[in-house]
Structures are given as C-alpha cells and as structure tokens.
Design a protein that fits this description.
The chain is an alpha+beta fold. It contains 7 helices and 12 strands. The chain has 2 domains: 198 residues, Alkaline Phosphatase, subunit A (3-Layer(aba) Sandwich), CATH 3.40.720; 97 residues, Gyrase A, domain 2, CATH 3.30.1360. One of its GO terms (cellular component) is I band.
C-alpha cells in the first residue's frame, strides 16, 4: 500500500453482514486494486476505480495419487508484484495483495512441528526476502506499508482422536451431511425439529473432547448463529480431535497431522501479524487482536473510507506512527479492550453443555 498521510475524517464502524472486500473499497476510493493470488483465474487488466481484481493464473500438476506436487509458483508471484511496482507512477497500483498457501498445506500433511514444515517456512521467508530486496532496489521501502498476516494457526492432530460419528449414530449418513475437520458440522438433508433434537441427544456427552451445539446455543463471541448458510449442529472439539469424513472415497485416507478451526482461545490457533512501513510504528510489540480489525487499518493506510464493518474504529491506532484524531463524537470513549487476553489459552473456554467435565462458560 502506498504510504500516505492518514485522514481524520469520520469512518463508520456500524455492524454489517455485507462488508465488501478491501479491493472493492479501494476501487470506490479511487485506488487501483490488484491481487497477486495463486488462485486459478482469468487475469485481466482493469481500469482504476473499477474495484475488480487482477489475478495470475498458475497451473498445479496433480498426480494420480490426488496429492499436489511441490508448488513452485510463489517465486513467480513475487516477481509479478515487483513487475507491477516497476510500472510508472500513474500506472502503479495502490494496493497489492500476495498470498502463499504454505506453510498451511504442509502443516496439514505433516503437522506444525515437523521438519518438512520448517522447510516451507524457510521457502516463504526467502520469498519475503526477495520482495524486500526488490523494494529496496526500486527505492520504495520508504513509501510502502507492508502487512504480513495469517488467518489462523495450526495444531497437531492426534490420529488416535479421530471421531467417527457413525459409531454413535450408525445411520447418520442417511439423513444428514457431515462436514469433517477440526470443527465438525452437521446439516440435515430435511430439517425436521424432532430429528434434530434426537440427533443432538444421541451425540451429546459421548466424548469429553467434543461438545455438541445447536446454532442458537453457541457462545455469542463466535458470531456464528445467524446465516442461512450455517449448518444445524456444530461440534466444538478440543485441539487434537478430528471429525472423520464419511464420504466413501476419502474415509480410509490417513488423517491429517495438522488442523485448524479449533476455538480461537487456544494459543495454537493464533495467527501472525508483522507490520513494516512509513506509516507504522517500528519496534513495537502489541497485544493480540482479532483479524476483523485489519480492514479499518488497511483503509487508513490506503487513505480510503471504510465501508460499514464489524471492526472497532480506533482499535489499532496505536500501531500507526501518526494516528488520526478521533471524531468529536467519540473522543471521550475509552479505547476498546482486547477481544481476548494473551493468556487466554490457559482460560477454561468450553461452554457448559450439561455433560460431565465441561468447564465454565465464556460467552
């Protein structure tokens, strides 16, 4: 993001379930948005302010085993970003996003503590070094802001803690779809209240590491209850547990050795945040915060007005070298408290479900 003076104009932080992607906000604000993702797509150049995204197409060879081969295109992605940054000033994008699918892929395959994952970390580190060196060669380090973020962590998955729901409800596949992983979900094929109640009762209290919730009973802090796309039951699992995929063609595959999707109170689920740039403070270590706050921060760095969103305006102003003054209407309001404590991993977080062994409630 091009460095620019931050604005003190009032931004709305009204809760909304339809906050547009940042690239769309950038387009409306007059900034050109390009995305250096690794997702296959039809790449095309678009005029400024359109809000559309320019992507790069990369082909990944998949052998008969179904497992992708080693992916080498991050180098091409970094090269493309540096190519964009070499454009004349009037053509240069104001916002570029760059995505690496590692170490996530390797973390699932071999676990977060494996030597193979460390190798992937070294590869990503090398690509970031290439990016920084390219910025230095172009004399741009003083006029860009760089945010390195992760959307989740990774926990070891125990092969002895694979949950096979058909052990408790043998006919479950006949009337429900089961979505597997670190946070199991169940959707009834035909939503009938008596069937849902019976299924909830049959699965509840079967394992101390598994809690069964209807959407309306989930902790409010998860904000996971009011959308037509959500499933009827959610299985909240302790780290290490996995719900097995019941599809015949995959159920016999070796389980993943690493997973994410557990309660974010677990330290293993915490992501990475590193910021560098002219508009950011340097040498500052901050308390954990939720990724939902990043949208407002990036809008400030890009000098565009955020759309209504669920972030707390001002919650990350302490990261800025020259934070904007708060609007008159909120100058007397205390800064928002951290959404969770840094020692939250040691805090009981299992919402009481009526089963023996449940910890206290944290809503």
């Amino acid at each position: 993001m091009e460095s620019s003076a931050t604005s003190s104009s009032t931004r709305s932080s009204t809760p909304s379930s339809a906050t547009p992607p940042l690239r769309r906000t950038m387009g409306r604000g007059g900034a050109e948005s390009l995305s250096g993702t690794q997702c296959p797509s039809r790449g095309r150049r678009v005029p400024p302010s359109s809000g559309l995204v320019l992507t790069q197409t990369f082909k990944v060879d998949v052998p008969p085993t179904g497992s992708p081969t080693t992916v080498v295109f991050p180098t091409r992605t970094v090269s493309k970003v540096l190519e964009w940054l070499s454009l004349p000033t009037e053509q240069r994008p104001d916002f570029i996003s760059l995505y690496f699918d590692e170490p996530d892929r390797q973390g699932h395959a071999t676990g977060p503590d494996s030597p193979e994952l460390n190798q992937q970390l070294q590869r990503v580190d090398k690509q970031i070094s290439t990016l920084m060196a390219g910025l230095a060669e172009r004399d741009l380090l003083h006029c860009v802001n760089i945010l390195l973020v992760a959307d989740h962590g990774m926990a070891n998955a125990d092969p002895d803690k694979v949950i096979k729901l058909e052990q408790y409800v043998p006919e479950i596949s006949e009337f429900a779809d089961v979505f597997f992983g670190a946070s199991g979900r169940i959707r009834l094929k035909n939503h009938e209240e008596d069937v849902l109640l019976n299924l909830t009762q049959r699965l509840s209290c079967q394992l101390q590491g598994m809690r069964v919730f209807r959407l309306e009973d989930l902790p409010k802090r998860l904000h996971y209850s009011n959308n037509r796309r959500l499933d009827h039951l959610v299985l909240d699992l302790d780290p290490g547990y996995n719900v097995q995929d019941l599809r015949p063609n995959v159920s016999k595959r070796p389980p993943a050795k690493g997973q994410h999707g557990y309660d974010y109170y677990n330290a293993e689920m915490n992501g990475l945040f590193v910021g560098y740039g002219a508009d950011l403070q340097q040498g500052l270590q901050v308390e954990p915060f939720q990724n939902i706050e990043l949208y407002n921060l990036m809008c400030i760095l890009a000098s565009v007005t955020p759309a209504p969103n669920n972030g707390s305006w001002g919650s990350l102003h302490h990261l800025l070298a020259d934070p904007p003054a708060p609007p008159e209407s909120i100058k007397a309001v205390e800064p928002p408290a951290a959404s969770y404590t840094k020692d939250g991993a040691d805090t009981p977080h299992n919402t009481t479900t009526g089963c023996a062994g449940d910890a206290g409630v944290i809503q």
